[in-house]
Amino acid sequence: MTPLSFVIALVAFTVFGAVFGCLIAGVDRIITARMQGRVGPPLLQPYYDVRKLLAKENRSLNGFMGYYLVLSLIFAILSGAIFFAGGNLLLVVFLIGLSTLLFIVAAYSSRSPYAEIGAGREIIQVLAYEPMILLMPVFFFFATGSFNVSAIFSLQYPLIVILPLVFAGLLFIITIKLRKSPFDLSYSHHAHQELVKGISTEMTGRNLAIVEITHWYENVLFLGYVGIFFVWVHPVALVIAVVVALAVYFLEIVIDNTFARVKWQSMLGWSWAVTLVCTVSNLVLLTVIIRFFAGGL
Amino acid sequence: MLIIASLIIFPVVVALLLMVIRNEAARSALVIGAVVILGALSVVLTVQYLLTPQSFVVPEYLLEPIHYCALAIGLACTLYVLVRAIRAKKILVILLAVGVGVLIVVYEMAFAHYAVVKADLYVDQLSIIMALIIAFIGGGICLYAIYYMRDHQKHLDHEGHELPEENDPALLKAARMLLQDRRHIFFAILFVFLGAMFAIVFSNRLSWLLVGWEVITLCSFVLIGYTRTKEATNNAFRAVAINMSGSLALAAALIMVAMGTAPIFELDLFIATAANSATGGVLALPVMLIAFACMTKAAQMPFQSWLLGAMVAPTPVSALLHSATMVKAGVFILIKLSPALGWNLPGLFVLIIGGLSFLGCTALSISQSNSKRVLAYSTVANLGLIAMCAGIGTPEAAWAGIFLLIFHAAAKALLFCCIGTAEHHLGSRDIEKLDNIFVRMPWIATFLAVGMMAMFIAPFGMLVSKWAALVSIAESGHMEMLFILAFGSALTFVVWAKWLGKALAVGNTSDPETGKAGKGEFFTLAVLAALLVIITLAIPLVSSVFVVPWLKETGVVLGLLPWIQASDVLGSDNLIIMSIIFLALLGLLLAQLLKKRPEQNDTIYLAGVGSDKDERGYSNSFGEVVDAGHRNWYMDKIFGENAMGRQATIMIGAVMVIFLVLGVVLELISL
Predict the structure, then answer these.
(1) B451 touches B323 (CB < 8 A)
(2) What are the C-alpha distances in Å from B110 to residues B101, B115, B249, B264?
(3) Which of A52, A110, B232, B512 could link A202 by a cystine bridge, Cβ 3.0 to 4.6 Å?
(4) Which residues of A touch B482 (CB under 8 A)?
(5) What distance in Å separates the CA atoms of residue A203 and residue A211, rounded to the nearest whole number?
(6) Do B505 and A130 make contact, defined as CB atoms within 8 angstroms?
């Protein structure tokens, strides 16, 4: 990752990340509506929502919440930019972690009991997905010999071939990261299963708009995590990766609409169990592959 | 040479003066002066060393008196503990003290006294780092102690005036004894502690190391028992029992290597021999015994109870024990041993106990709402992580371990001191009760938040070090540790994120800044916070000037190729990116904090009419006020001390025993 490629990626991700994120959110709402037998809003509804939120009068509890949220947005963009510039995968993971922390702190800063419950649940969500998110770059390193995302472009075969179980584990916990049922404990789009409005209870107007925009960027980044498993030196690889990422998002919408929210104990237990089983068995698989196909695959 | 000697001796002289001076103003002036001089000395040493590296032989005419002096000091420490133990009828401590005393005499008189060594004292980049930590962070805590102990004594005097009319003169005397002003002893011991730490850091002669080890055990004993309450005394004895069992192991290890066919009396020679015996086999048991001693000092599980018990002492003691001294002596020696560790029995021993301590204590700290207990558990956890890095035995892991050590020292000192101040002014150390601290003491809360973020999140120091640890584990192929680190890091996030949230909550207290810290106290806290920030910014510099050269030189001395080729684990570009992000984040936070606070024009949603602007409560339909507070998640049923504390301790204890038995058996077989 050279400074120049980083700056280009930063500008590109700031613009296109938001556009794609917004479009994905729009499609999500239409598909969800169709699944529920409704027509649904226009494609650009998420954009209209955010524009309306931005136009609202700014009512604030304190000067800090909005500030933390802006920082959270900045680090989400930075993290995504480093990812798409082909930078260090662990750096990406740590920066998006900082972004999440700032979001949590923003909720706590209101000192509202409902927001605190949501923030506490968000922390439990981090506890559930973080081991997998930390292990993924290490397996990436085992497979490619580098922590840099750009390493995938010189692979002779996509990562999914040797890391299928890590991919499965990632698919499981990405439901939490995309804030989809059954793991949308802290902040849900389904009003009937929400406690007031979870972590965003006290976020209104401009603040809520920032939360939505941050979420767009995050979604694009997480779909990027999915995509890197399907890229190799072949020219059509990027197309395949995009198609798979979108298919995964469709799968998540299906899951979102077929499951009800679970208790935190189930989420935590299942996430950790899946993480352990997937990573350990993939480790065994990797060892076998290295033993039998050393240099061959 | 002169500077090293003065770093060791000067604090002791100051301590003697402090014992005599009872006047508070004079004492404060002396402490401040001494801390400044110590800081200056350590900086001069650093500059001098960077210009011309050196090691030292003490002139021969001085050796004899120093030997006797060291022996006398070592014995005196043991004797003091012995007398106290006999008076308190602590059988275990009596036995241990006698054992340690006998071994020290045997070692000194039978082996070490006439030993000729190449270098008595040595300086390298690692000991310079430690010296700077001791001088600056330890010194900073001594400054803080001036103000803390003033409040502490005021509180005691206040209690003294309100002593109940007691008819029983014995009870009255006991009550009076607890309230006595014994601060001269307190400060004297603080400085002895610093002096002994310098002795440990610079000694190459193993017998002097052993004496330093005994002195810090004694210092911690006196400081933990300082308040003289029953609880304090009991905890002090528990601490000394655990630490003396470590000393016993250390003394036994030294005698073992002194009895060998090629006796060893120097630390560098010991490490070189251990590192170069192909399997680590020759010195496996001595290395394990020394590692055991280090783990008792570093309060690794199953010995964490002494460090948790130590928080009965005044807060500066906790700050000192956790950051610049005591536990750091343990991990410092472990890092020095690290070239001898790796894929061998001692290496696995250190690695596994450290890793399990990291995981276990991080999980346990989730269930704590007492802030000092959270800090204590997190110390054990982080020291476990450092031990784990040392156990891996690769230069990359050592790099991570050294940075963990540096940042843990800086962050913990700040955290403990902030909590001490908050407790004095707001009357509680409970995280839930301190949840309005950001409104009442905004700056203290900010320092606290900086300290907490330094412990777990990018782009702060601990995370950078943890990142390096993850990379070095991935490269070394210790898969089991990979999982421990991944799950442990997720648990760490929970511990700190929920506390950070509470500490930064902006409530509606109508009397803001009720708790105002004194100027001196505030100043020292600001200095500690500034130190933390400066080191974080200086990571690339510290790495290239101190840490990487140390790894390389260690490699050259020991003839280990991977160490000679050591470099920045994360690559300097990533380190620089982190520094830039850190600077940006810090600037933004500071700008926000200095901005005038905007007018609040909204209230929180409480599903009812808010009853009071200050408190979180609402009026229900009967007109009653309902409290709408919310406690954090502590998950007692999963992570509580009763749920998993004891089991984890027993399990890790069993693992430790298995390793030691294995070590002894292998030793016997090789005989």
Answers:
(1) no
(2) 14, 10, 18, 14
(3) A110
(4) 135, 138
(5) 8
(6) no
Comparing A175 with B50, the larger pLDDT belongs to A175
Q: Which residue has the tokens 């499609």?
A: A27
Q: CA-to-CA distance for B624 and A119, rounded, in angstroms?
A: 28
Domain residue spans of chain B? 2-154+176-594+629-670
B497–A123 C-beta distance less than 8 A: yes
- Distance (Å, rounded) from C-alpha A199 to C-alpha B151? 40
Write down the H helix ranges in chain A. 3-12, 18-35, 45-55, 63-84, 89-109, 113-144, 164-177, 205-227, 237-258, 264-293
Which residues between 600 and 619 in chain B have a beta carbon less than 8 angstroms from any beta carbon of chain A?
Answer: 600-607, 616
Among B479, B592, B616, the residue with its CB nearest the CB of A111 is B616
Question: What are phi and psi for residue B279, nearest 5 degrees?
Answer: -105, 5
Which residues contact residue A269 at a Cβ distance below 8 angstroms, ignoring those fewer than 6 apart?
Answer: none
At A262, list the tokens: 């679970």
| Residue A30 distance to chain B (closest CA, Å) | 31
Please state the φ and ψ torsions of residue B55, each to the nearest 5 degrees. Answer: -135, 170
Q: Give the phi and the psi of residue B430 in degrees, each rounded to 5.
A: -85, 130
pLDDT confidence of residue A297: 46
Query: Residue A160: which of A251, A231, A89 has the closest Cα?
Result: A231
Helices B183-202 and B206-224 meet at what angle, rounded to 10?
Answer: 160
Report the range of poorest mean pLDDT among A100-114, A120-134, B425-439. Answer: B425-439
**In this structure, are residues B652 and B360 in contact, taking their beta carbons and an 8 Å threshold?**
yes
| Of B412, B396, B424, the residue nearest B455 (C-alpha) | B412
Chain A residues within an 8 Å CB radius of B504: 64, 105, 108-109
* B605/A91 touch (CB, cutoff 8 Å), yes or no: no
Check CB contact under 8 Å for B493 and A127. Answer: yes
Instruction: Quick: pLDDT tens for B228-258.
Output: 889 999 999 999 999 999 999 999 999 998 8
B574:A88 CB<8 A = yes
Residues 94-113 on A with a CB inside 8 Å of B are 94-95, 97-98, 101, 104-105, 107-113
Which of B509, B574, B614 to substitute to test the interface with A, most A CBs within 10 Å?
A: B574
- Specify which residues A88 forms β-bridges with: A148
Q: Check CB contact under 8 Å for A196 and B585.
A: no
Give the C-alpha separation, B450 to B448, whole Å: 5
Selected residue with higher pLDDT from B626 and A144: A144
CA nearest A101 in B: which residue? B497
**Closest-CA distance of chain B to residue A43, Å:** 32
ipTM confidence score: 0.95
pLDDT tens digits for range B569-593: 888 788 888 888 888 888 888 887 7
Summarised one tens digit per residue, pLDDT across range B279-311 is: 445 688 999 999 999 999 999 999 999 999 998
Residue of A nearest to B599 (CA): A62
Q: Does A257 touch chain B (CB under 8 A)?
A: no
Segment among A40-54, B153-167, B542-556 with least mean pLDDT: B153-167
| CA neighbor of B430 nearest in space, from B366, B369, B503, B494 | B369
Residue A205 DSSP code: H
- Separation in Å, CA of B629 to nearest CA in chain A: 6
Q: Based on C-alpha coordinates, what's the Rg of chain B?
A: 25
Query: What CA–CA distances, in Å, run from B248 to B58, B75, B207, B240?
Result: 27, 13, 13, 12
Tell me how crowded residue B336 is: count the other CB atoms within 10 A of its CB.
23
Q: Which of A65, A97, A120 sits opposite B458 (nearest CB)?
A: A97
The answer to whether the Cα torsion of B559, B561, B565, B569 is positive or negative is negative
Q: Domains of chain A: which residue ranges?
A: 3-293
